[in-house]
Specification:
By secondary structure, the chain is an alpha/beta fold. It has a single domain, classed as Rossmann fold (3-Layer(aba) Sandwich). Strands 2-3-1-4-8 form a five-stranded parallel beta sheet, sandwiched between helices. Strands 6-5-7 form a three-stranded antiparallel beta sheet. Strand 5 and strand 6 form a beta hairpin. The longest helix has 19 residues. The chain is globular. About 35% of the residues are buried. The structure holds BIS(adenosine)-5'-pentaphosphate and magnesium ion (MG).
């Protein structure tokens, strides 16, 4: 059976994680975030986490070979058998090529969430994440009902170490230099949808679902 593979592209803070949680639920497929996988390795004190830490803290991309091994191990798990939703992968042409080789003729559905750089810093520095369930909040745009407490599970809300104005500048540079070229890469191959990530979260979700509906119809 053909796997359904969905890729969410977008700058840091564009809303990939926010949308991925809802889309994965709506589509009934696992949400695979390379950033979350690295953070789990950091928290677990693994050798991979130790190798990735310096890059992540500086806002640089982790080298492709470390990312690819971790990602391909994850998507080989049984829950990914029918498909999976990728958040934060691929991020370089080499990663896209490696995924393409793995998928062969099975082209992924690619959604590019577009947000201008001018809006990114506020998104990043005011983000808060639940340390227990990973739910994502924003002090202005999506505040929790009670300050510092997760609406979903009452866990403590924390700030990611790389969510500073200084580190976000490097993350944006890395994005423009290494990841943004993937928009052209996928446009000229399997095609991609671009959605306006500056709209309200609900509207962005609807636009992503409309894109998925169109792409899946085309393929049937
Ligand atoms: P990763 O964890 O993937 O971080 P990122 O790409 O920088 O993206 P973010 O998670 O910061 O943003 P997001 O798009 O998920 O936005 P969110 O939904 O949270 O990667 C971290 C690091 O790991 C990298 O720097 C790198 O070192 C390494 N790494 C990971 N993958 C790698 C790979 N493939 N190759 C190499 N290295 C890799 O939203 C942000 C905020 O905005 C939230 O507060 C949210 O509430 C708010 N928000 C969301 N949507 C809206 C909206 N529509 N309106 C207003 N606010 C909104
Ligand atoms: Mg994210």
């Amino acid at each position: 059976m053909t796997q359904t593979v969905v890729i969410l592209l977008g700058a840091p803070g564009a809303g990939k994680g926010t949308q991925a949680v809802r889309l994965a639920q709506a589509l009934g497929m696992p949400h695979v975030s390379t950033g979350d996988l690295f953070r789990a390795n950091l928290a677990g004190g693994t050798a991979l986490g130790a190798k990735a830490r310096g890059y992540m803290d500086q806002g640089e991309l982790v080298p492709d070979e470390l990312v690819l091994e971790m990602l391909f191990d994850r998507v080989a798990q049984p829950d990914c058998g029918l498909g999976y939703l990728l958040d934060g992968f691929p991020r370089t042409l080499a990663q896209a090529e490696a995924l393409g080789q793995r998928l062969g003729e099975n082209h992924p559905t690619v959604i590019n969430i577009e947000v201008p750089d001018s809006a990114i810093e506020k998104r990043i520095v005011e983000r808060r994440t639940c340390k227990d369930c990973g739910s994502i909040f924003h002090l202005t745009f999506h505040p929790p009902a009670k300050a510092g407490v997760c609406d979903q599970c009452s866990g403590e809300l924390t700030q990611r170490k790389d969510d500073t104005a200084e580190v976000v500048r490097t993350r944006l540079q890395e994005y423009h230099a290494k990841t943004q070229p993937l928009v052209q890469y996928y446009s000229s191959r399997s095609g991609l949808c671009t959605v306006d990530g500056q709209n309200a979260q609900e509207e962005v979700f609807d636009a992503c679902m409309a894109c998925l509906g169109r792409r899946m119809e085309v393929r049937q």
